């Protein structure tokens, strides 16, 4: 039970060093689960948790680690959900870890794997091209492979997934992952130190070269020259090259024509922004990864307002977790709405009002506005009312009690019931479903 006493020792040391709320929120929930060699295994409730600790308390953690046989204890976090399959994340690695290839590929992100990449019509071509390159590096006509598209759409994720896959399948192969900025920096440094030969060797020895964001080569003539030679050396010896860019290479400005024409010999694939269904799928997956359970209507609400890219969707989940944990609030619709409002900014503060929704529903249902907000329980009136309540929730995110007040002074449980009823009905009733999505689209249009 050494791990428990070690952890207690750490907790004791931290007392007084950090405010009590921080200890309560971030340290007390940690469970020591084992000790392997000089590494303490710590279980945390979810992925968000260790990301938070890593970005806010890493220094404290490193300082607090007790010494074992004269060496600082290392630590690893494990996420406690079943889904995480006890996936072990590395940080707080020993500072004396040997360098070598690590220096060249310091940025490979172990979490960016194919399995965690959600496929949709927007990215399936890029994903299958990436998978095929990962299975057969250098041997296909996909050399070089260029993945291009806007920010936050998963280019870096796919690039690293290729790297991770090849490293696992062919551990001996030298996979080099760099951003074009790092490549540039290395080159500039090698110039300063008169070590351009070493620089060239480093990169030209790679079996697989993965370069992120080549648009940053723009206007850097000498670096492009270097890259051109690296590219040729690798290409001629059948080594795989994969690049990402913000635009279709043919449209990139500031890159030398001879580079661009080299790129033509391979394959360029694009990633588009995710559509609604893909956004929902991504949200559900990211919520699960973080160990939170999001209601389907909450997920839909987020997906309808956060549209630009996957990074925003992910950020929204993280923010929801942070807000709920820091303010000790339950994750409910109101909290989610606050976060979405913050993040969607202008796009969210739409001018759509409850009145607009009632008016629209009245148009399609032929029930008068007055009846919709009135007390009648006649079936078609009650249905139009339920639909209006549902849309208020779904589109504006009005709170249950406010909806209740507006629609004839009902209480929030009635509204909740209405939302649930419509949700259920849409599963069975295609016509209703089509009508709702039609209405959404109309409102959506005025949201943009
Ligand atoms: P880009 O390089 O295109 O700017 P990233 O690859 O950095 O975008 O993606 C931003 C974030 O969104 C990353 O955390 C990534 O894991 C996640 N992401 C992007 N696309 C997907 C996807 N299809 N499935 C799951 N996660 C994704
Ligand atoms: Mg990127």
CATH class of the largest domain: Alpha Beta
- In DSSP terms, counting alpha (H) and pi (I) runs of 4 or more, how many helices? 21
Classification by helices and strands: alpha/beta
Question: How much beta, percentage-wise?
Answer: 5-15%
Helix proportion: 40-55%
How many domains in all? 4
Distinct small-molecule ligands in the complex: adenosine-5'-diphosphate, magnesium ion
Explain the overall architecture:
It is built from 21 helices and eleven strands. The chain has a five-stranded parallel sheet with strand order 8-9-10-7-11, sandwiched between helices. Strands 1-2-5-6 form a four-stranded mixed sheet. The protein has a two-stranded antiparallel sheet with strand order 3-4. It is α/β, with parallel strands linked by helices and 448 residues long. Residues 82-105 have low confidence and may be disordered. α12 crosses α13 (296-305), α16 crosses α18 (379-396) and α19 (400-406) packs across α20. The structure holds adenosine-5'-diphosphate (ADP) and magnesium ion (MG). The site of adenosine-5'-diphosphate has 16 residues, from α7 and α14.
Q: Brief overview, please?
A:
The chain folds into 4 domains: 95 residues, GMP Synthetase, Chain A, domain 3; 158 residues, P-loop containing nucleotide triphosphate hydrolases (Rossmann fold); 72 residues, Helicase, Ruva Protein, domain 3, CATH 1.10.8.60; 94 residues, Chromosomal Replication Initiator Protein Dnaa, Chain: A (Orthogonal Bundle), CATH 1.10.1750. It contains 21 helices and 11 strands. The protein is flat, with a radius of gyration of 27 Å.
């Amino acid at each position: 039970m050494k791990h428990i006493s070690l952890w207690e020792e750490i907790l004791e040391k931290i007392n007084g060093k950090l405010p009590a709320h921080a200890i309560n929120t971030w340290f007390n929930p940690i469970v020591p689960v084992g000790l392997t060699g000089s590494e303490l295994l710590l279980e945390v409730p979810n992925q968000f948790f260790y990301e938070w600790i890593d970005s806010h308390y890493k220094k404290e953690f490193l300082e607090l680690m007790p010494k074992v046989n004269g060496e600082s204890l290392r630590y690893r976090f494990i996420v406690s959900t079943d889904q995480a399959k006890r996936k072990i994340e590395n940080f707080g690695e020993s500072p004396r870890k040997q360098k070598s290839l690590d220096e060249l590929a310091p940025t490979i992100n172990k979490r960016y794997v194919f399995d965690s990449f959600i496929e949709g019509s927007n990215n399936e071509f890029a994903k299958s091209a990436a998978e095929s390159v990962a299975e057969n590096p250098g041997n296909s006509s996909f050399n070089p492979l260029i993945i291009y598209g806007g920010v936050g759409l998963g280019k870096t994720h796919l690039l690293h997934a290729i790297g991770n896959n090849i490293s696992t399948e062919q551990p001996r192969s030298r996979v080099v992952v760099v951003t074009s900025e790092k490549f540039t920096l290395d080159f500039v440094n090698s110039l300063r130190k008169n070590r351009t030969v070493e620089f060239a060797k480093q990169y030209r020895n790679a079996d697989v070269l993965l370069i992120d964001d080549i648009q940053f080569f723009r206007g850097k003539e000498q670096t492009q020259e270097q890259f051109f030679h690296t590219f040729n050396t690798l290409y001629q010896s059948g080594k795989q090259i994969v690049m990402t860019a913000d635009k279709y290479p043919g449209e990139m400005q500031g890159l030398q024509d001879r580079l661009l024409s080299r790129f033509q010999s391979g394959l360029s694939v694009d990633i588009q922004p995710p559509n609604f269904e893909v956004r929902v799928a991504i949200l559900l997956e990211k919520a699960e990864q973080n160990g939170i359970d999001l209601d389907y209507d909450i997920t839909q609400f987020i997906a309808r307002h956060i549209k630009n890219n996957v990074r925003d969707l992910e950020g929204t989940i993280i923010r929801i977790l942070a807000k709920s944990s820091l303010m000790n609030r339950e994750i409910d619709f109101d909290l989610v709405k606050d976060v979405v409002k913050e993040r969607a900014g202008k796009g969210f503060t739409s001018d759509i009002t409850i009145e607009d929704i009632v008016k629209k529903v009245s148009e399609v249902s032929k029930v008068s506005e007055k009846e919709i907000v009135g007390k009648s329980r006649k079936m078609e009136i009650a249905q139009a009312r339920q639909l209006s309540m549902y849309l208020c929730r779904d589109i504006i995110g009005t709170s249950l009690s406010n909806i209740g007040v507006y629609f004839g002074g009902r209480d929030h449980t009635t509204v909740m019931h209405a939302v649930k009823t419509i949700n259920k009905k849409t599963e069975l009733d295609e016509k209703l479903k089509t009508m709702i999505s039609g209405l959404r689209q109309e409102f959506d249009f005025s949201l943009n």
